[in-house]
Write a structure and sequence with these properties.
Helix content is 29%, strand content 30%. With 222 residues, it is an alpha/beta fold. The strands form two sheets. Strands 2-4-3-7-11-10 form a six-stranded mixed sheet, sandwiched between helices. The protein has a five-stranded mixed sheet with strand order 1-5-6-8-9. 32% of the residues are buried. Bound molecules: zinc ion (2 copies).
Amino acid sequence: MISVLCLGDFCSWNMDLNIINSICLLSLLLIMESINVLIIGGDPEDKKDMVELVEDASSFFPTEIWDDIIYIGKLSLEHDFKIKISRESYGAFLFRRLIDRMKGIKDSTRLVSLLLGITADPIVTVYHFFDETSFKKAIYLVHDYVNKKVGVVSLFRVKEDTSSKLVAHGLGHNRGLRHHAEPIDLMYYELLTAPTLEVDGFCKLCRRKLRDEKPDLHPHPR
Ligand SMILES: [Zn+2]
Ligand SMILES: [Zn+2]
């Protein structure tokens, strides 16, 4: 059960732009299939764990997909919400606002390849709907959203042994993969509640799509 305690309009961020700019220049010089990792919130010592997590996630992909994993920095961001789950209260980020921040950072730093934000905090999205007589509000946790340019992954309440799989799932979206029901692999639509994976990684079809995403390496007739 999820309920909103309060909604504040005080979201602010700050980060070391010097670090970003210098890494950005470096990134521009590299072949542009790197994963630029931004840690959102949490403790500074999370860095090693988070970067290792992305390394583990990238190991599920064919070796030619990702050239590099670059740690960009830490984004200090005030929470937008407090949510209450089983009587525990947690600071949460509003999905739409967080994605807009990520796009702003990517544009201002002129990063060419993927900017991936990872947080241990909850990311939530709010839906309003009309229920016969009145408007109602529903709140959902978002665990992964990754497009071609930016993405976020929330590890909130994700088991440790599933974390790298969730990041790999998000990276799969970046490479054009979609959810599916069969077989149960990394792109399974309910990965977080899935029983053991039938395919420990990406299924045949997903792997074919991953190859086709790289037409320069694997040309095929169109
Ligand atoms: Zn997904
Ligand atoms: Zn698949």
